[in-house]
Amino acid sequence: MRLVHAVVAALLLALLAPPGVAATPSAEHKAQRPRVSITASPEWVRKGGIVTLTGTVKGVRGRASVTIFQKTKGKSWVVEAVKRTTRKGRFTHREDVTSGDRTYKACVKRACDSVLVHMGQQPKQSTAVSLTGQSASTVEAGQSFSVSGTASANLNGQQVQVQAYDGATSAWSAVSTAIVQGSQWATTMSVGTAGKAIPLRAVFSGGTGLSPSVSNQSAVAVYGWYYLEDLSTVEGSWDLDGAQRISGVTYPRSVGENDETIQVDLQRSCIRFSAAVGLDDSSASTDKSSIRLLTDSVERYANNNLTLGVGSAVAFDVTGALRFVFEPAGINDEPQIVLGDARVLCAF
């Protein structure tokens, strides 16, 4: 009886014992179950193009046999190739794609992974770029100022081009670039062509898988220097233009007159006048004259004692003026009064 009890006790202990030992083979088996991964490059391929399938197999000792299947829409799986992994568990397969989207599947025993390959051109993602700020609305030609904006998240790391419109050529031209970071961009720029309202915009020209986009427009008033000799007069005409001398200094872009009132249309688009004023060096030593310079009816400069060998630098504000007016008055012999390198700062 005692022997029977001992046997029964032993059986009960065996049945109730922790399953650690019994579970060990199952854990080892699980650890050795294959794990397969597969990728395709490119995932979009043109008809007749080459797709490269690469993958890895883990959880298998030694080199494994990998079966690669493929199927197109509505068809059954077809064995495409059987590959052996390298000692590091890697495999590669290349093939032509001749028709339709297809799925490739790599299997080791019952462990599989799949990847979809499209035939054709990959659709491009839409993008967006905007111009939201600029540090100045009025600048001189060539003066730097900053512009900034936003962009869609898929443009992070991409280049945005800032463009200015040239009315003379009816074309947009690049004036600066910026790299998008955190959906923001900023850059400094300058415009070399004067104009009352030069249009600006930001442009993404497109890239791999990304559609081009164009921002809203802003504008900047760009002022440039214009010589009076290049501007048409609306009353009177200059006797002299081009290179003239005042007190031994040659001014290559000058105008001159001795007795006629001259008016130039500023179109209310100019802000500054600058010139050297004096008698032409060919005047007689006894010559004298007087001059008044006005904007509309407002006197800006006057000299009642212009004499040979004396030149004066003259500059004044002409903001909002419609006309620039030159009024000479010869005191004797009416010598030529020269405005040396006379110019106005305007945004026409």
TrEMBL record:
Signal peptide interval: 1-22
Glycosyl hydrolase family 98 putative carbohydrate-binding module domain mapped to chain residues: 241-322
Source domain of life: Bacteria
InterPro entries, alphabetized: Galactose-bd-like_sf, Glyco_hyd_98_carb-bd, NPCBM_sf
Keywords: Signal
Matches recorded under Gene3D superfamilies: NPCBM/NEW2 domain
Protein name: NPCBM/NEW2 domain-containing protein
